[in-house]
Amino acid sequence: MTALGLKPDGAQARPLLRDLASIALIALAGASGYWLFPDNLSFLTRVISVALLVLSLDLVVGYCGIASLGQAALYGAGAYAAGIACLNGVTEPFLLILIGAAAGAVTGLMMGAVMLRAHGLPQLVLSIAIVQLLHEAANKLAWLTGGSDGLSGMLPAPLFGLFEFDLWGRAAYLFGLGLLIVTFALLRLLVRSPFGMVCRGLKEDPLRVSALGISAFPVLIRMFAISGAVAGMGGALGAIATQVVGLDSVSFELSANALVMLVLGGLGQLTGALIGTVVFMSIEHVIAAINPFHWMTLVGAILVAIVLFAPRGLSGTLDELARLLRREGRP
Amino acid sequence: MTLPSPPFLWPSMQTALSIALDALAYGMALFIICIGLSLTMGLMRVVNLAHGAFAMIGGYIASYAARDLALGYAFAITLAVLGTVLIAIPLERLLFRRIYDRSELSQVLMTIGITFCVIGITNYVFGPTLKTIPLPAELARPVDLGFRSIAGHRLFVIASGLVVAGGLWFLIERTGFGIRLRAAVENAPMARALGVRTELIYAASFALAIGLAAFGGVAGAEFLPIEPYYALRYMVTFLVVVSVGGAGSIGGALAACLLLGSIDITARYLMPEFGNFFFYLAVILVVCLFPRGLMGRAKA
Amino acid sequence: MSAVFSVERLSKSFGGLKVNHDISLSMAAGERLALIGPNGAGKTTFVNLVTGRIRPSRGAVSLGGEDMTAVSAVGRVRRGLVRTFQVTRLFSEMTPEEHMLLALLQRAGRATRILARFRGDATLRDEAADILATLGLTEVARRPVAEIAYGQQRLLEIAIAMAQRPKVLLLDEPAAGVPSSDTPLIERALERLPPELAVLMIEHDMDLVFRFAKRVIVLAAGEVIFQGLPGEVAQDEKVREAYLGSYAHAGR
């Protein structure tokens, strides 16, 4: 997995400045989305919601080196928790997001406790089994989850008591954008914290980390909980914005797509997760509307191409290009 | 899978017997498909999620041969196996060979990619409808076992599974090819130094795995019907079975197929409204109890 | 007894094969002990038993009088039993400074804090810089490990161990893979180890062993066949036999 690792940023190019720049870029991109595609805001909100899922996956795959094809279990937990709460009279949007985060975190703890018992392929299989198990459970517990019809008719209260979550989806979009920016900034701090550094160490060489006297399990299980909280917020945002929660929110397909988006964008950089989500979902939006099977063929081809030609994903490849150009420019 | 779904009742002796026979046949069908995957994963260390796609391609070829060209069942199976291997060879040379020593994640991603492509192309060429493989009269008839009669096809699948298991065991443990294969797996440079042509060995085992997948796809079509999403729908099932059995172990794969096959079939008979719930619950329990698989050969 | 570290009849069998058999030794604070032995003598197994990566079939390991046999590998490190690796195990994309900070933060019990800045503590940064300077690594302190020379990576292994402030340090072939021109660098680093630290070195390079160790233990076929001063080792019959086989007799 080292081939898909972090970029060797030897120069330590003032990380704080880079963070601020990427946050400004996200805000800028978000704002231009708002002005350029006013008729597609609900789609863009969905992109943000999924971007949170892919970010959460990056924490586990990109920073800890644990491959997961079941991340939607955490996203779905957040979506259903927020949806159920909203139908039961909890309509304050911030509170719903918190409920989603809490549900995701608890599910993340459970998922981590199970997945960390195994390594490698059995671990990957556990992640799939967990998401499938929750999928079947959500289907079976129709009294709570609406079964295969899902939940619908959630009516969240206006944002700050002022802005309705209306048909145009402006409030939902801006709410989501704000949530994404805050989450992204916090995650940047997280991956730079001592904790984040230990995670990177665990990804590359767990034995080395244990020789430093650091136990892996408590670190990884906390990362699962954090990842769950982020994914859960994504799910809750989806529930608030679309006002439906379906079985597809806790599915193997969504988990696999999230991994594809992450790898497309580049692992272990957070920005890669965002780029991957936007590129993937935009192409999907256009092509899947024409023919879903052509879309599948294309995704397949993209995946094969990434593995063969750009194992660092789009952002890693861009970084490399930039470095090459800089080197060219030098005397 | 199309199975009767009666309301929950404790099964009578007769129902219990038919569940057991169905579970046995289903487990064997799974085994024929999955054993190839288990070998590629355990011996060649390649996580080939596109394995199901090859089983599906086999099914399509057999359906085309038996239904559209009205050829015999045996002939259709032969065509399916050869045709699938023929399709797989260029893929092995162009794509798989490049991921043999890449990380697990790279392998997972590339083979998911190949699966998606196969699904998209299959749907484009053959359409989204289900393809049947007509059975010959001998296999369509029930066979009387004395205590109970069983569909001839089920009996054929069970027998095939046993032959495949025995044949593979013999091939790997008792023949020169098996010795060279194991040598190439244990220590490729050493094996090469001893004159073993590892590339050829790998290609041959890959072809063998794909051929078995195609055979399993055809033989198991009664349980796992052939349609474009086949490759994705059962990808997880196959992966799970291999992982539970322990990659590379014939006995483990057989045990996992029979165990998970019985749980799946029994749950579908008795509690159809739970879907795959118990199947995945069993998977989680088994993997937690045996993190290396029931009889793992490869260290994960 | 004032032993800071001791091993009592440590044994390990795989199947019927006794890889380590009744190995006993004890070390006082500040001692410099070398463990040598031909290939296949069971040195790697011994390291794994002592560090807690594998469970012994029999016997005990104790540190400062406390029984370690049931303590996990991580727990032993935390109690002051630190090791370096035969083949460097470093994080290729992190810098030497970051490795040092990880070790120092862990020593301070803050390595897994979320609400903290990684290089937020000036005292730790200074300590990291000091140790790196002692070992001559200041120039590469902020380059990713993947880009620095192998000899420097070996030095970093020792630097990390120093940052962990162990009571007992297990050096697993500290000069392995280092070009002979760089061996003096390693040797000088070893001389800088704190005098009160007990060091157990496992090494092939006999010159290094003779210069470094005050006492030598020879392991052959999983058993201790010699314990004594470095000067006596070459004269010992059993040792000659173990290393030279029948040639030992032929030569006489």
Q: Could you walk me through the main structural features you see in this protein, from its secondary elements to its overall organization?
A:
The complex is a heterotrimer of chains A (331), B (300) and C (252). Helices cover 73% and strands 1% of the residues of chain A. By secondary structure, chain A is mainly α. Chain A has helices at 15-36, 41-61, 72-87, 93-115, 120-140, 142-145, 170-192, 194-204, 206-211, 216-242, 252-265, 271-290, 292-309, 313-329; strands at 151-152, 244-245. Chain A has a two-stranded antiparallel sheet with strand order 1-2. The model of chain A is unreliable at 1-12 (pLDDT under 50). The radius of gyration of chain B is 19 Å and the shape is globular. The longest helix of chain B has 30 residues, at 13-42. Chain B has helices at residues 13-42, 51-68, 73-94, 104-126, 137-140, 152-174, 176-186, 188-193, 198-219, 230-233, 235-245, 250-270, 277-289; strands at 142-144, 149-151. The model of chain B has no long low-confidence stretch (mean pLDDT 85). Chain B has a domain at 13-129 and 207-289. A two-stranded antiparallel sheet of chain B has the order 1-2. Chain B is built from 13 helices and 2 strands. With 252 residues, chain C is of the alpha/beta class. Chain C has a single domain (3-250), classed as Rossmann fold (3-Layer(aba) Sandwich). Chain C has helices at residues 43-51, 73-78, 96-107, 122-134, 150-163, 183-191, 206-212, 230-233, 237-244, 247-250, and strands spanning 3-14, 17-28, 32-36, 58-63, 66-67, 81-83, 168-172, 198-202, 215-220, 223-228. In chain C, α3 packs across α4, α3 packs parallel to α5 (150-163) and α5 (150-163) packs parallel to α6 (183-191). Chain C is globular. The model of chain C has no long low-confidence stretch (mean pLDDT 88). Classes of the chains: A mainly alpha (331), B mainly alpha (300), C alpha/beta (252).
Task: Describe the structure using short key phrases.
heterotrimer, A: 331 residues, mainly alpha, two-stranded antiparallel ribbon, 14 helices, 73% helix, 1% strand, globular, disordered N terminus, C: 252 residues, alpha/beta, Rossmann fold, six-stranded mixed sheet, four-stranded antiparallel sheet
Task: Give the topology, please.
The complex is a heterotrimer of chains A (331), B (300) and C (252).
Chain A: H1 15-36, H2 41-61, H3 72-87, H4 93-115, H5 120-140, H6 142-145, E1 151-152, H7 170-192, H8 194-204, H9 206-211, H10 216-242, E2 244-245, H11 252-265, H12 271-290, H13 292-309, H14 313-329
Antiparallel strand pairs in A: 1-2
Helix pairs in contact in A: 1-7, 2-7, 2-10, 2-11, 2-12, 3-4, 3-10, 4-10, 7-10, 8-10, 11-12, 11-14, 12-13, 12-14
Chain B: H1 13-42, H2 51-68, H3 73-94, H4 104-126, H5 137-140, E1 142-144, E2 149-151, H6 152-174, H7 176-186, H8 188-193, H9 198-219, H10 230-233, H11 235-245, H12 250-270, H13 277-289
Antiparallel strand pairs in B: 1-2
Helix pairs in contact in B: 1-6, 1-9, 1-11, 1-12, 2-3, 2-4, 2-9, 3-9, 6-7, 7-9, 11-12, 12-13
Chain C: E1 3-14, E2 17-28, E3 32-36, H1 43-51, E4 58-63, E5 66-67, H2 73-78, E6 81-83, H3 96-107, H4 122-134, H5 150-163, E7 168-172, H6 183-191, E8 198-202, H7 206-212, E9 215-220, E10 223-228, H8 230-233, H9 237-244, H10 247-250
Parallel strand pairs in C: 3-8, 3-9, 6-7, 7-8
Antiparallel strand pairs in C: 1-2, 1-4, 4-5, 9-10
Helix pairs in contact in C: 3-4, 3-5, 4-5, 5-6
